């Protein structure tokens, strides 16, 4: 096989898709493909898609529309759709866009090389099964390839929670955890390749049960790897935040003081209709326990406004919850009807009310985010440097709290950890001075 074929992957949606795209690119590397950064150069285009909201799903079709000319010029071009739109819509994608040669669901990525070979022979290829085996075992990686300082590692997939708005339990399937031994091997391999920070990924990552001690047990074991300096995990459900995981936040130095813990809404009536299985009060108590364990913990959340039947009073309860928690960062969305989910059938909130609420919610979240970021000025933070900044001699990295930090210091290289005093807070990042480099741990 010659190394001349070119693969262009476009990734939409969550961090798990970013991880999956890396693994697919590595697997196709074994088939003689190298990754390129523009669709014009490619022999194969793969869209790794997201189905979480309507807009995300529609982007796929508009992107495919843009490839019509390319396919006409280059009939051998293989066009594939992967990810959650592939899972949700399957063969419908090929009916709507006949130039698509290949459709592969998130649980079938290990079949990608065979599907690509079928497509090259001129057949349409589709696989949206939920097989028993661990696809990552079958997706071969290139162990020696050098990596940047941060990496994602999927430990858990799928979700059994069935929140009334969410397609994940349908597109990613039931909750499945990867065995701890495989995760440890993969983590060691990443560290040997230069990674210093690993973010464990799962749609419901704190429900992880592939280790006797659950996610907390896995984190403690990962913390024993020399050279691995930082551990994070995302995304969690409040009800799976067990005592062991709360304790780990206070006891494991390598576990960063930042937690993405979505609540979605602050009204008990709406939380119940969302099938979240907890109240606003229970969530706030949980945050208190986490802060008792780790006082400097920064919280991040997801919020949905305009969920069916949400009133102004319900929305006010969400604002009150946000005031009570004080978030370091947050993501907020207008409710989007997803076919096949229970909430899609219910009376909808009108678009103007959704827009108005989103604006007010985001104004509050931005203010909080800014306050917590500004409070870093004068403090010393630990920064893991990732890449050069835009200005000469500048390096950019992330603090423990995931703030971007810029420092001018010629001595610093990607992968370095340093203690940095913050002297300025800008719109999206902090500036530091007097970096004191730390030795690798
Ligand atoms: N509409 C709007 N936002 C949604 N999310 C999930 N489903 C929907 C939907 N139908 C949001 C939730 C979730 C995040 C990943 O996306 O806030 O936590
Ligand atoms: Fe979706 Fe998260 Fe709810 Fe699971 S817990 S159904 S992934 S929002």
Automatic annotation (TrEMBL):
Residues that hold [4Fe-4S] cluster 1 according to the record: 14, 50, 84
Key words, A-Z: 4Fe-4S, Cytoplasm, Iron, Iron-sulfur, Metal-binding, S-adenosyl-L-methionine, Transferase, tRNA processing
Domain Radical SAM core: 145-374
GO CC, any one term: cytosol
Domain MTTase N-terminal: 5-121
Protein residues bound to [4Fe-4S] cluster 2: 159, 163, 166
Its EC number(s): 2.8.4.3
Record domain TRAM: where: 374-436
Primary site of residence: cytoplasm
Protein name: tRNA-2-methylthio-N(6)-dimethylallyladenosine synthase
């Amino acid at each position: 096989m010659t190394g001349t074929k070119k693969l262009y992957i476009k990734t939409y949606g969550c961090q798990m898709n970013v991880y999956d795209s890396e693994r697919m690119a590595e697997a196709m590397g074994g088939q003689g493909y190298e990754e390129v950064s523009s669709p014009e150069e490619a022999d194969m285009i793969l869209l790794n898609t997201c189905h979480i909201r309507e807009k995300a799903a529609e982007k796929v079709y508009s992107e495919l529309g843009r490839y019509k000319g390319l396919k006409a010029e280059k009939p051998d071009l293989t066009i594939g759709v992967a990810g959650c739109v592939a899972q949700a819509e399957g063969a419908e994608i090929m009916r709507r866009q006949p130039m698509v040669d290949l459709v592969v669901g998130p649980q079938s990525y290990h079949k990608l090389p065979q599907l690509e070979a079928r497509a090259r022979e001129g057949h349409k290829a589709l696989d949206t099964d939920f097989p028993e085996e661990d696809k990552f075992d079958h997706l071969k990686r290139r162990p020696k390839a050098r990596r940047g300082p941060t990496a994602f590692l999927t430990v858990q997939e799928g979700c059994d929670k069935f929140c009334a708005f969410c397609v994940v339990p349908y597109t990613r399937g039931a909750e499945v955890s990867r065995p701890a031994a495989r995760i440890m091997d993969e983590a060691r391999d990443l560290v040997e390749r230069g990674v210093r920070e690993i973010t464990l990924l799962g749609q419901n990552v704190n429900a992880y049960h592939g280790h006797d001690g659950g996610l907390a047990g896995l984190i403690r074991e990962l913390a024993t790897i020399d050279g691995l300096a930082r551990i994070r995990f995302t995304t969690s459900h409040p009800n799976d935040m067990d005592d062991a995981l709360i304790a780990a936040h206070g006891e494991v130095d390598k576990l960063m003081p930042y937690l993405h813990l979505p609540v979605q809404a602050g009204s008990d009536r709406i939380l119940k209709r969302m099938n979240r299985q907890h109240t606003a009060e229970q969530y706030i108590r949980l945050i208190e326990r986490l802060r008792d364990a780790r006082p400097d913990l920064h919280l991040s959340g997801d919020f949905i406004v305009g969920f069916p039947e949400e009133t102004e009073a319900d929305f006010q309860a969400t604002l009150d919850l946000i005031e009570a928690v004080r978030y370091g960062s947050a993501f907020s969305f207008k409710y989007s009807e997803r076919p096949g989910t229970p909430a899609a059938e219910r009376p909808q909130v009108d678009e103007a009310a959704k827009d108005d609420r989103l604006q007010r919610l985001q104004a509050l979240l931005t203010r909080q985010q800014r306050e917590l970021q500004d409070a870093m000025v004068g403090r010393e933070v630990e920064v893991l440097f990732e890449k050069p900044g835009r200005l000469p001699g500048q390096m950019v990295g992330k603090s423990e709290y995931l703030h971007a930090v810029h420092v001018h210091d010629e001595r610093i290289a990607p992968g370095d950890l340093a203690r940095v005093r913050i002297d300025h807070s800008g719109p999206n990042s902090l500036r530091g001075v007097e970096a004191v480099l730390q030795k690798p741990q």
